[in-house]
Design brief:
elongated, alpha+beta, 255 residues, five-stranded mixed beta sheet, 2 domains, 62% helix
Length: 255
């Protein structure tokens, strides 16, 4: 009975929608069209739950389509997402699951996301964590990201970068060049080299690469993640991230 209730109004609606295209075979008169519209309206008023079913099904189909789009983009940019030397690896470099975060230093949600990331790194030594600057929140974010890239250029281990990253994300006030330079100094970076590296073409190339990947994946906010072959948008919390990591590792929500 559920299936019939769902299909009946759709069939009637389809008949109306298709009527112009099928006009050579059969035309509805104004009276017939009015009667069909009345039947549909009365049916939906009497059975409003059908609209909920339709909305749920549409949402499900959109989610499936979006997931397929994301996975295609991940496959297309796999090397740049997971293997680019412009990403900073702060987890197990030989880990079995890739966990890539796109972040902005002025993103409030990224502060909590950083805590989630650090907790995951402690509890999951097999996690390969990659950080990618994605400054979408204005000029200050862009300046901070440029300093971060210069930090990466003199830190092959990722240890000083991670220290810098935490200092800047947890600091008070808006992140900009001045605050980023202060965080870099506190993290023990060579400031003369850093100032020189800020003018390097590598800074621009890194940002262009990150924005290109994000654009193709349809990312428009931070934090956003690539976990395994899936894209996760937003601060979904440690439980949501753990589930995606498990799915990437063993195909189940819990391994």
């Amino acid at each position: 009975m559920r299936a019939f209730r769902f299909i009946a109004p759709l069939a009637l609606a389809t008949a109306i929608a298709c009527a112009p295209a099928a006009s050579k075979a059969q035309d509805f008169s104004n009276a017939q069209r009015s009667e069909i519209e009345k039947i549909i309206k009365n049916y939906l008023v009497a059975n409003p739950e059908v609209l909920e079913e339709m909305t749920a099904e549409l949402t499900k189909r959109q989610a499936v389509a979006e997931s397929a789009k994301h996975q295609a983009a991940v496959a297309k940019h796999s090397d740049a997402i997971f293997k680019s030397p412009r990403g900073v690896v702060v987890g197990n470099k030989d880990g079995d699951v890739n966990f890539v975060e796109f972040f902005d230093y002025n993103c409030g949600y990224c502060k909590k996301a950083m805590t989630d990331m650090l907790d995951l790194m402690k509890s999951d030594p097999k996690l390969r964590v990659v950080l990618k600057e994605f400054p979408v929140l204005g000029p200050g974010s862009m300046e901070a990201a440029q300093v971060a890239i210069a930090v990466r250029m003199q830190d092959s281990t990722g240890k000083k970068y991670l220290d810098f990253h935490q200092k800047l994300l947890t600091g008070r006030g808006q992140a900009d060049k001045a605050r980023a330079l202060s965080a870099a100094k506190d993290a023990g970076l060579d400031m003369a080299k850093l100032e020189k590296d800020l003018t390097s073409p590598e800074v621009r190339a890194t940002l262009e690469e990150n924005f290109k990947i994000a654009e193709d994946m349809g990312l428009n906010g931070t934090p956003s993640y690539v976990i395994g072959k899936d894209v996760v948008v937003g601060a979904v919390g440690i439980e949501g991230l753990s589930k995606k990591i498990s799915e990437a590792r063993c195909g189940k929500a819990t391994c």
